[in-house]
Amino acid sequence: MARGSEAELARLAAQVSSCRRCPRLVAWREQVAREPRAAFAAQDYWARPLPGFGDPRARAVILGLAPAAHGGNRTGRIFTGDRSGDFLFAALARCGFANQPTSSHRNDGLRVSDVWITAAVRCAPPANRPTAAEREACLPWSVRELQLHGNASVILCLGAFAWDAALRLIAVLGGDGQTPPPRPRPRFAHGAEAIAGPYVLLGSYHPSQQNTFTGRLTGEMMDAILMRLRELAQRR
Q1: Residues with Cβ within 8 Å of residue 145, at least 6 apart in sequence
Q2: pTM to 2 decimals?
Q3: Which of 178, 194, 211, 222 has the smallest count of CB within 10 Å of its CB?
């Protein structure tokens, strides 16, 4: 696999940020910026697609669903400025992947090590529900992103949508016939592991409020998944 430079990743980020492939998502992300929540009324929303961010030499990729309308779509960084991100970055800090437990804006001093954080869909979708077609439209960005991370060997999928997107992504990357898709198709579950081409997929419930507020996903569960992520990345 190719290994990309920081300059190549920066060029990809600029290309992602200017994408307007999906009319429904473009309209929604911009409408949200025009009609912000009262708490954010004085802020300028990013209102564009979000590139991934993190360690260019990462051995692990964390794949989410899509930016939150008033989170990443506002701040310009995935999982930043929303409750899901609060939960995730606190866990990343506890497990040694992040230098601080909070992620509030793009210039808040956050640094992560050995992980790259991205999403299957790069624009905030209405009701947090992107379509399969929108996932496919974003797929080339994810393909190129993964190609530029030649050290990466493990993908942590936050939720079933990300799990399915990762399987599709790896199938496209292995389209030369050298990487057959796994059979039977691996099923998503919290803690699920599957070999897919040169990668290990690791499943986790998404750190949404629906999961964290109900106790379906606890801090201890998230920590265990992240420590398993580290273990798998160090093995390969």
Answers
A1: 9, 12, 51, 52, 116, 118
A2: 0.94
A3: 178
